[in-house]
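hiii so um. not sure if this is the right channel but i have a protein structure encoded as tokens and i wanna go backwards to a sequence. like what aa goes where. can anyone help
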């Protein structure tokens, strides 16, 4: 026989309100429905990124994700990308022409972080280099936004954050999903008690990448594999709602190059709550998420980590849908950085340093169980 933990059913059902919502109870806090929630989540909205103060961005790395980020800054915020750094100055010049007209092109990263016109550096190089490049920017006295996964492992993350603390600069992991309108909206649904207490989160992120040993996702030297590039999304999504897990169970399948091609994970939390997550390089999966509570569930449509819609289905038969902002969406995290920098903050409560470290600790444990070891470890 399998022991089944006692599950608190939560408070009694709320009376129905207008527009398909449930009237919130006044004698509970949002954290009683999911540990990652606060009273700030009740509104279920995000600020307009165009209202954030202007900052001057320097982009370190001239790849695709840096391009979409720069486009979002240019088109949807008051800020601007004023400099681009690449090891190849011609690539930096081409990037600037396409995504940041008028930006200065630097042929090395040291020149970028030393540029006196740059307020914030966005690190968009492979995971294997986040640690080095984030430290380069921090030690130059710059505020920094670092692509996820934040670093190759938790030890590197702690070193970067310790350096940021000593320097008194703002640093944040670029987990852009946390700042999107649909995520704010679904957190509001949960915070108001509309699906009761969360007992399960299920999410997957899979994309198809044919085996090319030189590609960064298959290269151990570039911290390749599904987990750090794709799996970080479902892991961080679960963490955003549930916090750090009590235990982790993972199984992985390795590629011919020794990185993880596919990983399945179950994260366990108090009171029997679980997150069931998966990631793969071998198939374009549904890329959806389901948050189940004691009184209903939220089904987040494809692609859950990017601007999308969701449906609320309650056990009493009531249903309603959210279909809000659509578009690229990286401007929302850029605006958060601008607001925090202008306020003199060194971190964001939506993607705090402790949150980044807890996600990295989880990824380290998953990688250990999957048998992935990078060069030098």
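sure thing!! here u go:
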């Amino acid at each position: 026989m399998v022991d089944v933990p006692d599950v608190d059913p939560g408070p009694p059902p709320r009376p129905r309100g207008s527009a398909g919502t449930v009237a919130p109870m006044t004698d509970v806090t949002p954290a009683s429905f999911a540990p990652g929630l606060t009273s700030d989540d009740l509104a279920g909205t995000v600020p307009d990124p165009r209202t954030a103060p202007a900052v001057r961005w320097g982009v370190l790395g001239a790849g695709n994700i840096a391009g979409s980020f720069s486009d979002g800054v240019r088109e949807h915020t008051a800020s601007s990308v004023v400099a681009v750094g690449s090891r190849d100055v011609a690539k930096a010049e081409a990037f600037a022409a396409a995504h940041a007209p008028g930006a200065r092109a630097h042929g090395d990263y040291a020149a970028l972080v030393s540029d006196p016109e740059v307020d914030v550096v966005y690190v968009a190089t492979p995971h294997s280099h986040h640690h080095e490049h984030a430290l380069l920017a921090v030690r130059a006295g710059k505020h920094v936004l670092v692509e996820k996964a934040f670093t190759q492992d938790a030890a590197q993350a702690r070193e970067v954050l310790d350096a940021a603390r000593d320097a008194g600069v703002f640093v944040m992991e670029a987990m852009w999903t946390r700042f999107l309108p649909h995520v704010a909206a679904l957190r509001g649904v949960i915070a108001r008690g509309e699906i009761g207490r969360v007992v399960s989160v299920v999410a997957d992120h899979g994309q198809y990448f044919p085996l090319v040993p030189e590609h960064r996702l298959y290269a151990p030297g570039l911290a390749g594999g599904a987990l750090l590039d794709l799996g970080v999304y479902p892991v961080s999504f679960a963490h955003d709602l549930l916090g750090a897990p009590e235990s982790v169970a993972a199984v992985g399948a390795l590629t011919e190059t020794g990185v993880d091609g596919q990983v399945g994970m179950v994260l366990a939390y108090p009171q029997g709550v679980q997150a069931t997550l998966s990631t793969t390089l071998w198939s374009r999966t549904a890329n959806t998420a389901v948050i189940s509570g004691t009184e209903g569930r939220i089904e987040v449509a494809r692609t859950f980590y990017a601007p999308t819609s969701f449906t609320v289905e309650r056990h009493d038969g009531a249903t309603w849908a959210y279909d809000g902002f659509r578009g690229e969406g990286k401007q929302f995290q850029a605006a958060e950085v601008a607001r925090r920098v202008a306020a003199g903050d060194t971190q964001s409560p939506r993607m705090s340093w402790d949150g980044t470290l807890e996600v990295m600790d989880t990824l380290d444990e998953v990688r250990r169980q999957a048998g992935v070891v990078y060069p030098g470890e």
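oh and The domain at 49-177 is CATH 3.40.50.720 (Rossmann fold).
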